[in-house]
């Protein structure tokens, strides 16, 4: 991309340079994925800065989630993920699949570039949505003003989005100029695809590959449950040097590869009783099945429980329990766009919600800025507001909320 010189870029360069531990964690995680992403970006003839975009989106944390339900290193919300072919179900979330999400993100960015004709505008639209950019351009045309990225009036986060990426680009290009030492990323594939062949426990797959669970999950973060289902197109990602070890151990395996079974339940059944029946703690039953800790009875769903009533030793935790610890009301939350003069207490009064709850829904936010988005999880809100307010939009019509990533660090 074209070289830029702005105060915002310098500000973010300084911000990253002041956080060497954060940069080290981010680049250490990124070494697993960067060779693959760089290859895909090169194949498409895209600017190489795009390979660094997950640093802005998620700090290369494959388990990063947001209050707007964005997930994975590329931070897709459910609807956009589905639009770009990312399967999402109880077992699997393609938004966290490294290959699926990378291809989807690059497809989306190419579509945005074709639409807006410039990469900075495409990146801005990736952040706030194409409708946001189109509205900003229409507003400038009406005022006979330029419609390029620098001239548009955009949400604060979107105004900072490209400068932040350019700051990361400069740091990666010249780390010594900022007093930083980056993790070495060898110019060769880090992982390879391997067929699962059969249903297999996540923990056992990691053991057969000879890698720690943390490494296995970092390469295969799309699996929501402790069992990986064999499907026609299902593959595992393993470090290149561990592929032969996994395949050899899989061929020699004579014991069952799964230690979990699916258990249908009746609506209203006590979860504590079900846990006792199948020899598993209540806490673990909830973790494995992605059930919020406050839920006490079954909704009639199928649950994973230990096979033959034997206590499983796996410490696997479903990824979807890493979402902010609120209740399901946030799934249908409304989003308030902060305007000049807004206060948290004023927003709470406006929507008839408790101030402490409002803060908890928004990760303890303390300072408001114009253009920022605040989640309002009020189940009867639609009945209390007689006319839709232009500053409120359904959260699932946008790619992300302003403070979208909640677990990068």
How would you describe what is shown here?
The protein has 409 residues and is mainly alpha-helical. It has four domains: 7-178, Lysozyme (Orthogonal Bundle); 191-252, no CATH class; 260-306, Membrane-bound Lytic Murein Transglycosylase D, Chain A (Roll), CATH 3.10.350.10; 329-397, Roll (Membrane-bound Lytic Murein Transglycosylase D, Chain A). It is 40% helix and 9% strand. It has a three-stranded antiparallel β-sheet, with no helix packed on it. Strands 1-4 form a two-stranded antiparallel ribbon. α7 (119-128) packs across α9 (156-173). The protein is globular. The model is unreliable at 310-332 and 378-407 (pLDDT under 50).
Radius of gyration: 23 Å
CATH topology name of the largest domain: Lysozyme
Q: Report the span from N to C terminus.
A: 28 Å
What percentage of residues falls in helices of 4 or more residues?
A: 25-40%
Structural class: mainly alpha
CATH architectural category of the largest domain: Orthogonal Bundle
The run of helices and strands is: HHHHHHHHHEEHHEEHEHHEEHHEHE
Largest sheet report: 3 strands, antiparallel
Q: Please give the number of β-strands.
A: 9
Q: What count of helical segments does DSSP give? A: 17
Strand order of the largest sheet: 8-7-9
Q: Whole-number average pLDDT?
A: 82
Shape: globular
Task: Count structural domains.
Answer: 4
**Low-confidence parts lasting 5 or more residues at pLDDT below 50?**
310-332, 378-407
């Amino acid at each position: 991309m074209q070289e830029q010189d702005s105060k915002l870029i310098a500000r973010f360069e300084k911000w990253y340079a002041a956080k060497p531990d954060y940069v080290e964690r981010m680049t250490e995680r990124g070494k697993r994925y960067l060779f693959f992403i760089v290859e895909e970006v090169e194949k498409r003839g895209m600017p190489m800065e795009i390979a660094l975009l997950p640093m802005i989106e998620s700090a290369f944390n494959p388990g990063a989630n947001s209050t707007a339900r964005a997930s994975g290193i590329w931070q897709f919300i459910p609807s956009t993920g589905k639009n770009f072919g990312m399967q999402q179900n109880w077992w699997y979330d393609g938004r966290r699949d490294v290959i699926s999400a990378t291809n989807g993100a690059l497809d989306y960015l190419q579509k945005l570039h074709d639409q807006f004709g410039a990469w900075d505008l495409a990146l801005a639209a990736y952040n706030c949505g194409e409708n946001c950019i189109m509205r900003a351009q229409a507003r400038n045309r009406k005022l006979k003003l330029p419609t390029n990225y620098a001239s548009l009036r955009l949400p604060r986060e979107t105004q900072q989005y490209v400068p932040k990426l350019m700051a990361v680009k400069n740091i990666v290009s010249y780390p010594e100029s900022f007093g930083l030492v980056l993790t070495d990323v060898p110019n060769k594939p880090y992982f390879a695809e391997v067929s699962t062949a059969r249903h297999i426990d996540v923990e056992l797959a990691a053991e057969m590959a000879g890698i720690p669970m943390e490494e296995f999950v970092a390469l295969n973060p799309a699996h929501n449950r402790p069992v990986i289902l064999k499907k026609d197109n299902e593959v595992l990602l393993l470090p290149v040097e561990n592929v032969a070890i996994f395949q050899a151990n899989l061929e020699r395996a004579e014991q069952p590869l799964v230690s979990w079974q699916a258990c249908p339940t009746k609506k209203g059944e006590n979860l504590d009783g079900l846990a006792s029946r199948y020899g598993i703690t209540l806490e673990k039953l909830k973790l494995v099945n992605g059930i919020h800790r406050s839920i006490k009875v079954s909704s009639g769903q199928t649950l994973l429980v230990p096979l033959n009533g034997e206590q499983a030793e796996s410490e696997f935790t479903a990824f979807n329990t890493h979402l902010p610890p609120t209740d399901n009301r946030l799934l249908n939350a409304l989003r308030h766009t902060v305007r000049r003069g807004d206060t948290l207490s004023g927003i709470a009064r406006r929507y008839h919600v408790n101030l402490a709850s409002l803060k908890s829904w928004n990760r303890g936010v303390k300072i408001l800025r114009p253009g920022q988005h605040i989640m309002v999880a009020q189940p009867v809100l639609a009945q209390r507001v007689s006319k839709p307010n232009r500053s409120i939009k359904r959260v699932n019509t946008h790619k992300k909320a302003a403070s979208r990533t909640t677990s990068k660090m």
